[in-house]
User: Fold this.
Amino acid sequence: MKCPFCAHLETQVVETRLSEDADVVRRRRQCSACDKRFTTYERPDVSFPAIVKKDGRRIEYDRDKLRASMNLSLRKRPVSTEQVDSAIERIEEQLLTHGQREVASTRIGEWVMRELRKLDKVAYVRFASVYRSFEDIDEFKTLVDEVRR
Assistant:
């Protein structure tokens, strides 16, 4: 594995862990040239369904885009990277077990909201307020009241 810091080709695995669901292997590696450490993830290469956007366009599933949108909602919140990774893995599992060749982006949005609600209520409200495109403060208040219950 090439070192992301110095591009040296010799790195050594220092630690290996399985994810909670045992479907992803996390490896800590150390470069033999610069001694810096980095993390790699090993997961099966699977084919995800196409994502159908609200305007009808079809795009490929993008894990990084999902992570970015969740991280935006979780910004400055006390949620670990491992918790986010686990949530993303659960969403991807739903995508794969859904059994369809195409999945509406709205369905993925609902799965994300469900995961964020479990992780952090503030992040859930942040995501939902953008995702549901609230038009007025009453819609926002209704969501906050719902979370409080």
Observations:
- The chain is about 45% helix and 20% strand.
- Residues 81-97 form the longest helix (17 residues).
- The mean pLDDT is 90.
